[in-house]
Every structure is written in C-alpha cells, then in structure tokens.
Amino acid sequence: MRQTEKILRTAGIVAVFLAFFGNTGLVMAQQLPVWRHGVVKAKSDSGFVMMANRHGFDQKYGLKIETLEFNDGQLQVRALISGAVDSIESGVGEEIVAAGAGADVKIFGCSWPSPPQGVLAKIAIAVPQDLKGKTIATSAPGSFPDLLAHAILEKYGMTSSDVQFAGLGGDNDRYKALISGVVDAAVVSSEYLPVAPKGVHLLVSARDIMPNYMRWCFASTGKRLEERHAEAVSFMAAEIDALRYAVSHRDETVKLTREVVDSKPDDPRPEFMFDQVVDNKMIDPEISIPTDKIQWMQDLFLQTGSLRTKFDLAKMIDAEIRTKALAKIKN
C-alpha cells in the first residue's frame, strides 16, 4: 500500500513538472519575436520554401516566422515597402526595378539562382525553329514568360513578328490554353511536365536559354534590416539551415509540399519537382549572393526598358546579414 502511494505521489510530481514546463515551453514559443515573410503562392516545390517555419528551424534560432503568400512579385514588393512584411522571397527583377525607382529595397541572399520554367509545346513542334508561325502563351510584356519567349526567338534566329503571342495570366492559365489547343506552346513551370497529356513535351528549359536569370532572392528594407538586425540574422540562419536540410531529405520535403498544396497521393509533381530542383541545382541552400548574375539582371532590365537608369547595385545588397547568419549556424 505504501509502495502504491509512493508511486502515485511520484507520478503526481512528474505530472505537475511536465504540465508546468510544457506550458512554459508553449508560452516561450508564443513570446518569440515574429518575422513576417512574404513568398509567392505555393507550388509543387513549396517544401523548400516552407521548411523553415514548418519544421521548427525558426524556433531553433529564436524566431517565429509567419509566412504570407502573394500572387506575384509586384504585390510582394508593395507589401515589403508598406511594412506589411519584414522580408520577401521574390523575383529579382521586381526587386531591382523597385530599387532603381528609389525604393528602400535590399537583397540579403538569393535562394533560387535558376528558374524552373520552360516551354511546353505540341509534339509537332520538335525544335525551337518550329515555333515560326505558331502561337505562344506568355504573360505581360516585361514578365519572365515574355522575356524567355523573346530570348528563344533571338537565340534561334527569329523575331517577334515570326510568332503570335497570347498574353495570359498565371502558369495554370497558360497550361490550360496549351492542352486545350488554344495555343501551340506555353511558357510554364516544369511542374506541369509529369501531368501533361501525350502529344505535349518540353521544348526547351529556361536555364538553358537564360542561365544567368535568377528566380528568387531574399529582400527586405534597409530600415528594417537596421532596426531588426539581430532578428534578420536569425531569420537568415533559419532559412539556410532549413534549405540544407530540405535538399538532403527528399521524403520529408516532398511530404511537406503535399501538405502545403494539398495534393492528391497520386499527383507526381512534388517528387518530380524535388528531383528537378536538386539534380539541376536550381536552388542554393547556402543562399549566396551572386553579384555577377544580379548585374546581368540589371543589364537585362535596362535593355528591355523595365529599368530606366543604371544604379550602383552595391547599394541594394547587404551581405553582412548572411555572413553573420553562417557564423550563427556554426555556434
């Protein structure tokens, strides 16, 4: 009887201990400083993008990352400038154009040095030269789909007058136009390749036509990086740590992608995109800052007229955040 009472008494102490420290842990998690981060609307590679705040990497570095999704890079930049978010992972072009117009936009790391897009086309279009006289689904003038289409024409000795452009909204709109026969080719993410019907194939990959074109960089404002410097360093440390984990843990990254986009079990795109991204080094888990590519991007937008005047890119790059983040990861 005494032994039973002793066991019950011990169990009660343990229960109180766990309840107290469990609740304390919860309160601590709730009191972590919040870092609001804007990303592009979730796609079949979202396991990489969402890993930092879905697997506890943010809490590991003393933060709570809140991720907000936006339909495009322009909306992300507006949210950043307005103070609605602390950082964005968005199109480098939008960031450069905003900084060129005088906005306080600072790049402090680049996660996707290569775009996953390509041109899907009807099987009868066997080589890029076969696009002559055909209709290509792109997007607004100056957008990446538009720039890629023009780059292909230039590379293969054609001009814009050799084809017809169908300016459509997002990837899904362009993909539907292709498989329904409205257009002959479409600039879309390669995630549509494994679900494309017979008679549709990948004509060319963007990374082969525009190897210097970057997909996404992390950006904030100079003011925010100064005011929340330590938290910005912790945020970058969490993102680097998370991406290193993501590229080396296929099953968990794919699983997270499926959770984020709510994909069906038989949807092959999450696995396909993981392999495409990792095998072709489309993502940089070190989130480095390739200034040569950023310079190339500025020159491109000057050439196309999206950027009016050239400016000193060094003024929109903050490399210190990343340097300190790498040191923080080692500690």
Shape annotation? globular
Looking at how many chains there are and whether they match, the oligomeric state comes to single chain
Helix content: 40-55%
Largest sheet: 5 strands, mixed
Ends distance: 52 Å
Report the C-alpha radius of gyration, rounded: 23 Å
Mean pLDDT: 90
β-strand percent reads: 15-25%
The figure for the number of domains is: 2
What structural class do you assign from the helix and strand content?
A: alpha/beta
What CATH first level of the largest domain would be assigned? Answer: Alpha Beta
CATH architecture of the largest domain: 3-Layer(aba) Sandwich
Per CATH, what is the topology of the largest domain? D-Maltodextrin-Binding Protein, domain 2
Care to count the β-strands?
Answer: 10
Instruction: Give, in order, the helices and strands.
Output: HEHHEHEHEEEHEHEEHEHHHHHH
Uncertain segments of ≥5 residues (pLDDT<50)?
1-28
Q: If helices are DSSP runs of H or I spanning 4 or more residues, what is the number of helices? A: 14
Strand order of the largest sheet: 2-1-3-10-4
What is the assigned CATH homologous superfamily of the largest domain? Answer: Periplasmic binding protein-like II
